[in-house]
Amino acid sequence: MPSKKKKIAVLVSGSGTNLQAIIDAVKSGILANTEISIVISSKKDAFALKRAEMAEIENIFLTPADFSDNNEFDKKLIEIISNYSVDLIVLAGYMRILTNEFINSFPNKIINIHPALLPDFGGKGMYGHKVHKAVLKSKVKESGCTVHYVIPEVDAGPIILQKTVAVLENDTVDSLSKRILSEEHKLLIEAIKKVLMDSHHCVI
What we know:
This protein is of the alpha/beta class and 204 residues long. It has six helices and seven strands, in the order βαβαβαβαβαββα.
């Protein structure tokens, strides 16, 4: 009897290149026995929604303006995701800070990818190009990306995997971010695989 498919929910806010990496890995069998059950975006024009549509994956845009605050928004998010009994929630360029209630509703089931080597260059306000800017300004010789479990403290959850990328002398925010992004795609897939494999052995 084939083992039950592992189900993933992906939260997005932008172009969705990390989502695309997951879609491709599921399609090619790198992420075997896995399906993306739902893609949820906090931005209406996120290209990630188009990617989900093209891959015939159920997708939802949740309008932040429809909710009085973050807590109400996340309550709806919990309600939606709970319908899919997912094994894992992946934040793939999701630009909202999750509430404690959301995080506590899915303990050890939420992972995030961050474009630097945590614990360095993490925390509130450190996302996207801001991270690469800070890295270049600090003159460090290495950066990279980190996949970690999400806990209430921003970017402070247990690290699952990291990949180091050299910072070159003539790097700009764009050039560094491009090189790190291509590593993010690979690292995220490896981390999903690792977490889903590990969850066979431990009760979450």
